[in-house]
Write a structure and sequence with these properties.
seven-stranded mixed beta sheet, two-stranded antiparallel sheet
């Protein structure tokens, strides 16, 4: 089944499953002008919490976008430290380092970022776009971890996804173990939560954005994204929301296909990009 999605003046054709729900905002004239910018774009993937630059979705998207001439940069939000040592400030610095490197090579006004963020990486993309609106052209966010520090009360303790101890026990101990995707455990200091509290739970970004969220997300409830979407209508940003029958990882084959199609359409990518990228280098 095909759905038509109007994202600003761009018409996207998505091959979605019948269960996929598409919601959209309309755009402001100022955003339509910014989307027509001729600035060269740099494509960056932001991995999630307790993950790294070689995550499954990141490498999958990099491999699929490469034939289109897109060099998707898989950056390390842990900044060389163990995944359990990730910090909010450090992750944002990692994104900033990409922009500064590209701006240094091409000039500040000549480079804009196109960000793809998964889970907490999706939050960091939105937060970076809020802090630096002139540096980000548009984003695709995959189950973004909005309001993550407040989610921990539901995710820790008895009969929860991460199990005991609960938030109070974690704070008293100073750190606690969390499972990595491969099943190994890493210690995460409670200072991670403290650092999160210094940032907006729901960033007020202004660039065109598509969010894909799993209806069966067991980590960040889909209602969190719905709450964000419903309470930010007056921002004037373009936020298209796709709700898909999948869990937090968004790795079901149909979801991966939809994600790739959404990215190529929303970023207006095609095989002609390969020639354009070569000309810019």
């Amino acid at each position: 089944q095909q759905h038509m999605l109007l994202a600003s003046h761009l018409l996207l054709l998505l091959s979605a499953s019948p269960q996929t729900t598409i919601i959209r905002h309309s755009s402001s004239p100022s955003l339509r002008m910014s989307m027509a910018s001729s600035s060269p774009f740099r494509y960056v993937y932001l991995h999630g919490w307790l993950s790294g630059p070689q995550s499954f979705k990141g490498t999958f998207l990099k491999d699929k976008l490469s034939p289109l001439g897109i060099d998707l940069q898989l950056i390390d939000l842990n900044r060389g430290k163990p995944p359990g040592q990730m910090t909010y400030d450090g992750a944002l610095i990692a994104v900033d380092e990409v922009w500064e490197r590209e701006a240094g090579a091409h000039g500040e006004g000549e480079v804009k970022l196109r960000l793809i963020g998964s889970s907490l990486g999706g939050y960091f993309a939105a937060r970076y776009a809020e802090l630096h609106p002139n540096r980000v052209d548009r984003m695709v966010l995959l189950c973004p971890a909005f309001d993550f520090h407040n989610q921990f009360r539901k995710l820790t303790g008895e009969n929860t996804v991460f199990g005991p101890p609960d938030m109070d026990g974690w704070q008293s101990a100073g750190s606690r173990p969390f499972p990595m995707p491969d099943g190994s455990l890493v210690d995460v200091p409670f200072s991670f939560v403290d650092g999160a509290r210094g940032h907006h739970a729901f960033p007020l970004y202004l660039c065109p954005t598509t969010i894909i969220h799993g209806l069966d997300d067991e980590i960040i409830p889909v209602d969190t994204t719905k709450q964000f979407w419903e309470t930010h209508e007056d921002q004037g940003e373009v936020t298209s929301l796709l709700l898909v029958p999948d869990q937090h990882a968004l790795t079901a084959p149909n979801t991966l296909s939809l994600t790739l199609k959404t990215i190529t359409d929303f970023f207006r990518l095609s095989h002609t990009n390969k020639q354009q990228q070569q000309q810019q280098q």
